Amino acid sequence: MQLFIEYLIILAIIFFISLGVYFSLGLMMMAINKRHPQARIQKKRDGMKRVSVEVLASVKALGTSAALLSAGYFFQIQGWVLFEPPALNWWNFLLAFVVIFLLFDAWFYWGHRLLHLKRFYRWHKPHHLSIAPTAWSNDSSAVMDTVIEHGFYFIVWLLLPVPALAVFALRLFDQVSGMIGHSGFEYFAGRSTRKPSPFLCTIFHDLHHSQFHYNFGNFLSVWDRWMGTVHPKYDEIVRQIEETGQIPEEQFTRVNKTS
Ligand SMILES: [Zn+2]
Ligand SMILES: [Zn+2]
């Protein structure tokens, strides 16, 4: 019973921090976007129509994510893991961060591909009801969708000697980059976000929502490029924005029907 209460306290702290990050970053991004209407990607769609549904779904999904992350952390502090983490220093923090960043990117890509299979798509469909995503859409996912995509935040503690700070830092980075990636406004398109760079900009995942069959990756475009699932016009669109400073609207009007 004592252990369970300890777990609940950790869960409550992580959940409230997650909500704090979600709402403060969401409001901040709304304020920034309002001042830059030209940066809107899908100019003919209003993603904000779904905001109340998405915020409600996000609170539940953030609860699921927090339950997974706090369970993993709790297992580690109890010693119920394969390897004890080393004492924290900058080197093992950075090394662990890079390793779990790459592992999570692979986990997310394949988990996401799995969710797009006919058999599992019903779990992922609620997330895809956002055709023109906003910052509020990032966590608008069903419980099973979150369990599959964020299951990593439980498993990683059990299998690797990860310093806790590295996992928390990755989860925070994931939350911030995910909300920017769903914001519907493009500020980062440029040389560093198109071929041959592995990095990506907001348009990458925006295309996943508007055109569905491409761009399953999270942090990097590497897996999509290896597996041939990167949107055929992604690099060209980014180059166009880089050269003209304008979002090529016509590229975002077509929607392929979901399966
Ligand atoms: Zn998807
Ligand atoms: Zn999404």
Please give a structural write-up.
- This protein is mainly alpha-helical.
- The chain contains ten helices and no strands.
- The longest helix has 33 residues, at 2-34.
- It is globular and about 60 Å long.
- It starts with a helix and ends in a 15-residue tail after the last helix.
- One zinc ion binds at residues 127, 133, 182, 205, 209.
SSE topology sketch:
Layout: H1 2-34, H2 51-78, H3 90-115, H4 121-128, H5 143-150, H6 152-159, H7 164-181, H8 202-211, H9 222-227, H10 234-244
Category by helix and strand content: mainly alpha
Largest sheet: none
Bound small-molecule species: zinc ion
Form type: globular
The helix fraction, in percent, is 55-70%
Please, what is the average pLDDT? 96
Strands, total number:
0
Count of DSSP H/I helices: 10
Rg from Cα? 19 Å
Query: In whole angstroms, how far apart are the ends?
Result: 46 Å
Order of helices and strands: HHHHHHHHHH
> Beta-strand percentage?
under 5%
Q: What ranges have pLDDT less than 50 throughout 5 or more consecutive residues?
A: none
What is the structure about, briefly put?
The chain is an all-alpha fold and 259 residues long. 60% of the residues lie in helices and 0% in strands. It has helices at residues 2-34, 51-78, 90-115, 121-128, 143-150, 152-159, 164-181, 202-211, 222-227, 234-244.
